[in-house]
Design brief:
Helices cover about 40% and strands about 15% of the residues. It has a single domain, classed as Aldolase class I (TIM Barrel, Alpha-Beta Barrel). The model has no long low-confidence stretch (mean pLDDT about 95). It contains 12 helices and 8 strands.
Length: about 325
């Protein structure tokens, strides 16, 4: 039997407190967000995207990001990230001590203008300004460029792989420390995922650090598996599968944290997550989100009886 140190590992970065909550009408009180953080940390989650530094008038659901981040920074071993759309948001992230900040870029020109009111190359230029500001401040906050609509776009349609790869390299050249690829509107399929991730990893290696999939058409877990086959070991996911994109009507949301963790553990990967504790947290969050659409399957069927004990938290 493999020792704990020899067991292949995978990281599930929880993005429900940002990507999930920004996409629904309910405004969750700060106290409940802090409860969510504490329970997720107790269940073994060590990477959590806690919010976004955008004007409160645009996303009132995330107006308390600074307060939520401050609490996250008190939890031992937790890597707390935030999304920042521009230099001002990045400055706030650095002032507040975020460990990492994700700068979203849409590979679809049309989606980028609709979502960020900037062209993709203007976002690359913003990353260069963010990097210069970080270096000048002596900050240690990591910069991650998140390339969205990497597999297609509901507005533009097809997004060429060559354009995705060009923009991914441009983000790194502009000063991003690492990049991620996202299926923002749920167009990806496993064959396409494997093809693009293989090309991306051949180009930038381990600086392609994260895969972000939505389960819009029921292929989220299959796409995670395809990315894993190319060497990806960090995945974004949302508890209860909340989230989505305003430009993808009918979208079901992000890959479900508890379902993804179950799949990875059953594949023999160590996630450090306590699945019964995650399912208990889901029930609490469900109570806070009354009337909202939640997703996922593990919560309905439960853990297999013979596997329940082995799928509780393992040493991190």
């Amino acid at each position: 039997m493999l020792s704990t140190t020899d067991t292949p590992r995978a990281i599930v970065r929880e993005v429900g407190l940002r990507d999930g909550l920004q996409s629904i009408a309910t405004i969750v009180p700060t106290a409940h967000k802090i409860e969510w953080l504490d329970a997720a940390h107790a269940a073994g989650q060590r990477e959590i995207e806690v919010g976004s530094f955008v004007p409160a008038r645009h996303l009132p659901q995330l107006a308390d990001t600074a307060e939520v981040l401050a609490h996250a920074l008190t939890l031992p071993g937790l890597v707390a990230s935030v999304l920042v759309p521009n230099l001002r948001g990045a400055e706030r992230a650095m002032e507040c001590g975020a460990h990492s900040m994700i700068v979203p870029l849409s590979a679809s020109h049309a989606h980028s203008l609709a979502n960020l009111r900037k062209t993709p190359d203007e976002v690359v230029a913003e990353v260069a300004r963010i990097r210069a500001a970080r270096d000048a401040a002596g900050s240690q906050t990591l910069i991650e460029g998140g390339v969205g609509t990497a597999f297609g776009c509901t507005i533009q349609g097809e997004v060429a792989e060559e354009e995705v790869l060009r923009l991914m390299q441009a983000l790194l050249d502009a000063g991003a420390d690492r990049v991620s690829l996202a299926d923002t509107v749920g167009y990806a399929d496993p064959a396409g995922v494997r093809r693009l991730f293989e090309k991306a990893r051949a180009l930038v290696g381990d600086r392609l650090a994260t895969a972000h999939f939505h389960d819009t058409r029921g292929m989220g877990l299959a796409n995670c598996y395809a990315a894993w086959q190319t060497g990806i070991t960090r995945f974004d996911a949302c508890l209860a599968g909340i989230g989505g994109c305003p430009h993808a009507p009918g979208a079901s949301g992000n890959v479900t944290t508890e379902d993804l963790a179950f799949m990875l553990e059953r594949m023999g990967l160590a996630t450090g997550l306590d699945l019964p504790a995650l399912l208990a947290l889901r029930r609490r969050v469900e109570g806070w989100l009354a009337g909202e659409r939640l997703h996922g399957t593990l919560w309905q069927a439960g853990l297999p009886r013979h596997a329940a004990a082995s799928l509780a938290a393992q040493p991190a």
